[in-house]
Amino acid sequence: MARKIDTIGARIRYWRMRRGGMSQAVLAGLAGVSQSYISQVESGRKTIDRRSTLVAIAAALQVTVADLLGQGTEPGDPARERAAERVPAIWSALIEIEDGERRPLTRTRDELAADIARSDQLRNRSNYPAMARMLPGLLLDAAAVGGTVLAQVAYQASTCLRHLGYRHLALNAARVAVTAAEDVEEPAWLGASRFAYAQSLPIESAPLAARAADRSLAELQAAAADERVRQMLGQLHLAAALSSTVSGRPDVARDHLDEAAREAATLGDPPDGAGFNGCGFGPTNVGLWEMSIAAELGEPGRVIELSRTVRPQVLAASNRQMSYWLDLGRALAESGRRDAEALAAFVRAEQAAPVPFALNPLVQNAVLAMAQRAKRRAVPNELRLLAGRLGISLAA
């Protein structure tokens, strides 16, 4: 049954009223945007496409970006609710591991390896609720073995939790992964774990994420003869590029993108579409990150231009394919005059990775903004169907 979504705009208005009835003009001044922009966002006619804008508005309202996005709090979503049932057990396992406790293995080494591979397949398909059901026991058994086994499972846990909206727990899992990789001095897994750490930091900590990626790049350079390490160096450059963009340092971001592109040109796309730890590093992934960075810079035309040169289907990870169609859809929707094309892109994004698509608050708000624009001429059936699959009611 469709539910009434509490939009980002509605949350902004709620917190604005909680701050002594702060006017739209005052909020706009504090956040560095126009009053008309705040008005359109609150009414649902416009969505927020830039992370830096979310950070600025959240800071002006003295709340977190997660508060504005409703991450981890939006009721009624079946995928999130199924996963949420296992989140306390995952948290408990992470606390136990961080505290140094270790339990005996409950499965054989072969069974553990098979279950880790199964969890990785679920990650590749972006089936995070199914991953969440596996992770509590998998984490505890991986901790009994330690080393790269624990680093891999903790990395999986960090990815799963982040996509479900539990960034604070994703950060805990990333720290477990880093410690495990450091214990066995395994550079490739250390690079992967540090990448997970940078990705798990809250959006407000973009400067810290960029600095953390920089430190990891310097530390891992000595092991660059290992192709797996080179892939993770490339991923860390991409993470630093996006974080630097959010932090208002586009020149630094460009340098990191150029370094990633040079590394990718020598490696090529992974033949299996996955590469080390499923990161998929290569020219295609660089192109996808460049699209996301252009979106963050407020350059929808550049996003559309880049999309013509990127073939996301060469990568195995469904969330990378979703990223392509999602960034393209939001860019097409930006002008308000290409909503039919934007809708087609959103449908392709949903087909690529249904769970993270449905859980993405920016998707929900983009669909609602399109519906607001369409009301004068009646909402198209395709848009109504997409909204229904997201659990969004388009009733007045």
UniProtKB/TrEMBL annotation:
Signal peptide: none
One GO location term (cellular component): cytosol
Every HTH cro/C1-type domain range: 12-68
InterPro entries linked to this entry: Cro/C1-type_HTH, Lambda_DNA-bd_dom_sf, TransReg_Diox_bact_type
GO-annotated molecular function: DNA binding; DNA-binding transcription factor activity
PROSITE patterns associated with the record: HTH_CROC1
SMART domains noted in UniProt: HTH_XRE
Protein name: Transcriptional regulator, contains XRE-family HTH domain
Species for this entry: Micromonospora viridifaciens
